């Protein structure tokens, strides 16, 4: 949710890191963003769950990768 919220606001995500235990927005806002970005017109709860799990794994791997670290790659992958 933290990433999707900032993405919708047009924020630069290159230096953003997930903030564990940080509460942002309401459950309704979270659900609205998931529905907007999941790519399925009328998703089931299972489809929303799969979308959030997939997104979570991808973002966690991205944060852990040295190749996605802006201090390492500098400006060679800006906006990637």
TrEMBL record:
GO terms for cellular component: cytosol; membrane; nucleolus. The keyword Ligase applies. One of its GO terms (biological process) is negative regulation of non-canonical Wnt signaling pathway. It comes from the Eukaryota. Keywords: Ligase. InterPro entries: RNF213 (IPR031248). This is RN213 ligase. It comes from Phainopepla nitens (Phainopepla). The gene is Rnf213_2.
């Amino acid at each position: 949710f933290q990433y999707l919220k900032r993405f919708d606001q047009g924020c630069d995500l290159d230096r953003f890191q997930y903030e564990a235990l940080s509460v942002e927005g309401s459950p309704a806002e979270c659900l609205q963003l998931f529905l907007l970005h999941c790519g399925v017109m009328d998703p089931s709860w299972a489809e929303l769950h799969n979308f959030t799990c997939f997104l979570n794994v991808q973002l966690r791997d991205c944060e852990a990768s040295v190749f996605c670290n802006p201090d390492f790659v500098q400006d060679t992958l800006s906006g990637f």
